[in-house]
Design goal:
Layout (H helix, E strand, L loop, with lengths): L2 H33 L4 H31 L2 E2 L6 H14 L5 E5 L6 E7 L2 E7 H6 L2 H16 L2 H27 L12 H23 L4 H14 L2 H13 L27 H6 L6 H9 L2
Length: 297
């Protein structure tokens, strides 16, 4: 898949994910309504309305939500002239507007890009990556992230991050509501099947949402690696950066399962508690494979 095909595919994928999310949430709302002994149609309509507002909101405001959850702070050129110069030079070379620049105060080296299009984009890096990488390595990372911007990966990734989190919250609210329901509800017998379905959906819906997240193909990382290497004309810079980032033992404090797919390298480390479960739903291709491809260019 070339870059131009990827841009068109990512635009179509955005709308498909939103529609799929709306249908999924409406169905879950109906099941929860029946399980609660209420008017299932009313629950479905309420869920539909929330799904539509969440989808529209995630389209326009997902970047702000992601930045808020990661604790990123916007900086000016005077705060870090070298970083700004690198980004400015690469945006000129790639033919896209200058993004807003953010820094995350976190010793773990990592970076991500977000936004809804190249005209409304953000590049965020951690203090750890600024401290650990040399100039050519940092250029490789920034070129990778700007490739996500140019390829419209940022729109898909940011929307998915918000929608996955919304599904998880909805499932959690339903499970909590079950603890406060009376066991002598007259509708319990009639809605027993739906109650069971509701519990099953509450357990499985976050997993299904994550599978939708995984539907955002890992190929976007390979494509961004290739596009970034083409932009800098120096694949070794990004390959060396990936080695340093992946070998750092510190997990990111501000990362979550909903935003992990945004980062250039999975922010969870193997020694982190629960990392075995995270690896089952890894949204990143193996770093070793990415490095091998870059060094084979």
């Amino acid at each position: 898949m070339n870059i131009y095909n990827a841009v068109g595919a990512n635009k179509r994928k955005t709308y498909f994910i939103i529609i799929l999310f709306i249908l999924f949430i409406t169905t879950v709302g109906y099941i929860y309504g029946k399980a609660s002994g209420a008017q299932a149609g009313s629950y479905a309509i309420i869920a539909l309305i929330f799904a539509i507002f969440s989808s529209v909101g995630s389209f326009f405001f997902s970047d702000k939500m992601v930045l808020a959850t990661t604790g990123a702070q916007q900086i000016k050129k005077s705060d870090n002239p070298e970083l700004f110069n690198i980004i400015e030079n690469l945006t000129i070379a790639s033919g896209i507007p200058m993004p807003d620049v953010y820094i995350i105060k976190d010793p773990a080296p990592n970076a991500f890009a977000t936004g809804r299009d190249p005209e409304h984009s953000v590049v965020a890096v951690t203090t750890g990556i600024l401290n650990r990488l040399n100039k050519s390595e940092l250029e490789g990372v920034i070129a990778h992230e700007l490739s996500h911007v140019k390829n419209y990966d940022i729109r898909v990734m940011a929307i998915v991050a918000i929608l996955v989190g919304f599904v998880a919250i909805l499932a959690d609210l339903f499970m909590r509501s079950m603890w406060f329901r009376g066991s002598d509800n007259d509708n319990n017998k009639g809605n027993g099947i739906f109650l069971l379905l509701g519990i099953v959906f509450a357990i499985l819906s976050p997993i299904v949402a994550t599978l939708i997240q995984l539907a955002v193909s890992r190929k976007r990382e390979f494509l961004a690696d290739a596009s970034g290497a083409l932009l800098t004309r120096y694949p070794e810079g990004l390959a060396s950066a990936l080695e340093k980032i992946s070998s750092d033992p510190q997990p990111m404090r501000s990362a979550s399962t909903a935003t992990a797919h945004l980062f250039i390298v999975n922010p969870f480390k193997e020694k982190t508690a629960g990392a075995w479960l995270t690896s089952l739903f890894n949204t990143h291709p193996p770093v070793a494979e990415r490095i091998k491809i870059l060094r084979g260019m």
